[in-house]
């Protein structure tokens, strides 16, 4: 699910300007295709983030406007006026007269010549993990102060005279992180070119792989190890789910750093099972993560990871390389990935610990029932209607509605190119449309649900429906392998889909499912289960120490005759 980036800065303030039309110019010598995102905020100075960091999907968001730009000539202005679609306010004319701080970013698109024959304009990942406001090469301007008045006919002119610098060679570059890593004897980084992805996208495409080696790896050259895959969003460095911290934290008050250092101590002292722990980076033109399955729009990431990358990792670092000796875990986006990986590759994995997964049953697509609802934004009665909520606090207070979130993403990019949450689900689950972009399952401006696209989703990516349909063959392969947890106050209503999955599995026969479920009463996103006497934070901080022994115990219990269950248990 979502991640929020915050960057503090000092605002550069200019003289007041009265305007209801804004013209943005990019000083460049080449023609540009992409998407302009203009952000307006009342919060300025005093350590507040730049406006480009204040646009978000909840009601606390700054104001944004988005404009598609195709083949823009050098120095030709891009216009934002009353017709430009905005969020949360729908139009520039809807703003209250007042003083604001304004900043714009131009998200540069590149051509992708797909193996399908389609040519698409998309935002390539530039090593930043698909964040338009941090993407290297994107032009932007320093924040400026102005007075907006919808009744005025004045025009404000902005010049995007700055460019976000590259990641390569900086402290956010994974290869730089790996080179400086003081625990390099345990932690390795690989940049892996995928033949399958490169063919699909029509250009070289890479996966990043962080591999944590067990203690004693060099001293036991004949040992071969099980593999555990941790699923998560893109991050520059390693984390499973904590960062790799090899020195004691400066303050004991930083519970996350303390827990990370404790994990380092447990890992290197042999107090944890000796396995290869793998974290895969898979940012792509639609999101910071691929969802690790084969997709008509995102590409064959399931095949690339499981048929190309993992065999290469196991060969290089002496993995056992058999399904009984692999397991996976993750939460949120990683939760969906871990469960989907186990279901789609039942013979290649021997267990998943899945927490707070993204929608695994499309009867509960967050708070939308794609099968029974006709509109994703509102539910209507004979004389009234109510908006469909999307985000909430654990106490039930609503902080975001589905229609508003779709409009937010539309401001960031049309044709599914926002690189945000609803759009990546659509990119992963939908067929490609006639124009080559993902087919809309929900109209981003009206909320109408396309039932033919829903049918496509149902057959391929509704994990509950797939388990129900294929239980005769899948059931025997999944015994002892499914473990799920979620908070019943999940921020994005993800608990509803988990309950539906449990109801389906409770009704299974031959075999009867032995999947385990744990629900956290009132717990938000992302609850990962654990002893009830501990807090959600404590259980999160020791997740690896809890699940790795359980994974290995199951592996040993189910290992086939003659399997190597000894060389790695020194």
Automatic annotation (TrEMBL):
<dbReference type="InterPro" id="IPR000801">
    <property type="entry name" value="Esterase-like"/>
</dbReference>
<dbReference type="GO" id="GO:0016787">
    <property type="term" value="F:hydrolase activity"/>
</dbReference>
<dbReference type="InterPro" id="IPR029058">
    <property type="entry name" value="AB_hydrolase_fold"/>
</dbReference>
<dbReference type="InterPro" id="IPR050583">
    <property type="entry name" value="Mycobacterial_A85_antigen"/>
</dbReference>
<protein>
    <submittedName>
        <fullName>Alpha/beta hydrolase-fold protein</fullName>
    </submittedName>
</protein>
<keyword id="KW-0378">Hydrolase</keyword>
<dbReference type="Pfam" id="PF00756">
    <property type="entry name" value="Esterase"/>
</dbReference>
